[in-house]
Amino acid sequence: AQSVTQLDSQVPVFEEAPVELRCNYSSSVSVYLFWYVQYPNQGLQLLLKYLSGSTLVESINGFEAEFNKSQTSFHLRKPSVHISDTAEYFCAVSEVRSGSRLTFGEGTQLTVNP
Amino acid sequence: DGGITQSPKYLFRKEGQNVTLSCEQNLNHDAMYWYRQDPGQGLRLIYYSQIVNDFQKGDIAEGYSVSREKKESFPLTVTSAQKNPTAFYLCASSFQGTYTQYFGPGTRLTVL
Fold first, then answer.
1. How many degrees, rounded to 5, is the angle at CA A82 between CA A80 and CA A83?
2. Inter-chain CB proximity A105 and B90 less than 8 Å
3. pLDDT reported for residue B1
4. What is the C-alpha separation between B95 and B93, in angstroms, rounded?
5. What is the distance between the alpha carbons of residues B23 and A4, in angstroms, rounded to a whole number?
6. How far apart are alpha carbons B15 and A42 in whole angstroms?
7. Quick one: pLDDT at residue B2?
8. Between the N and C ends of chain A, which has fewer C-beta atoms within 10 Å?
């Protein structure tokens, strides 16, 4: 069975600093990987995804994540964060041919301070 | 506008009462899902449905029930058998086989 571990429950950073949110997964088969973002009292929004092809994927607001098969990781990075990036971030995995069922990590609360 | 709607946004219920949460989508998605979110535990899958009139249990189905009579609707009933129902409930949908799920705004259920 697949599983996801987000290594940090809380990450505080200052505005304009770089940030990395760590995600490791476990699966015996090929996987698809996702990062979702959740603002307070809202649903989740898809930030970026890896399905195939280039292992480096980017979002429209400056985040990027790299699929590392040997280390079973899919860390999320941004070179310079803004106050508006404050939110909870969830890593998720789906095993190929699983029927699109997702398993989520426990989430990382990113807080950007001025 | 296309999207997923959940109602109500906030819901209060007394212990021992059943309550039904609504989820509707107009994205023409085949699959729909219900998740429960508790602080520090991420999202856990309650039930999912890949086609009309069919659904499967997720990881925490006990105390919940669903129906899928129409493609666009997937209501969740929280029964009195659910021991700790206070949580944030999220509905999602996707095209079959695409693996990308889209989420509604959620319903916060509080048991008094």
1. 150
2. no
3. 60
4. 7
5. 27
6. 26
7. 67
8. C
